[in-house]
Amino acid sequence: MKRSKWYFFLSAxxxxxxxxxxxxxxxxxxxxxxxxxxxxxxxxxxxxGGSGYELSEEERDGLIHMRIEEKxxxxxxxxxxxxxxxxxxxxxxxxEQKHMDAVLRLLVKYNVTDPxxxxxVGVFPxxxxxxxxxxxxxxxxxxxxxxxxxxxxIEELDIADLEYQLTFVDNPDIIRVYQNLKSASENHLAAFxxxxxxxxxx
Length: 202
Known about the structure:
about 200 residues; Ferritin
């Protein structure tokens, strides 16, 4: 993965997240995605499942990134659903599990090692992802309004990441999954905006 691109792109998103009032120091994007260097090599040659396609390094790294990010969303929504018993979190956490499963199927097909060593809620394979989760939980615990803002931030981050990756991915399997994930995240974002009473742009 070209870290300079990720650093510039995601630093802006994390900075926007800080402006929402999250407590504590948010990890920089370069720190947050150091996990990709640890788990990005996989076990195989990228031709899993007889697909006929060999993944680029960026495509492999992108799948790893999205697998962890979808777990981050699912886990935060599970905790916020338990805390506030609001249907938006309860419904969307089920969708995030499907997103995780969709990315996992691609990892398996292309012989890329799953970066998640446990499915336990709130446990991540990298300190920076753990810190981001902890900060989202800290903010969401303050009030339902803050929890909804956390959901908005997560979906905006998800959409931005998917849009970025779709600029260089050329594998049709990955493109199809990413487009589906992006469409779902746009629906999720609209749901959070609805409950935040924020007008949705046409």
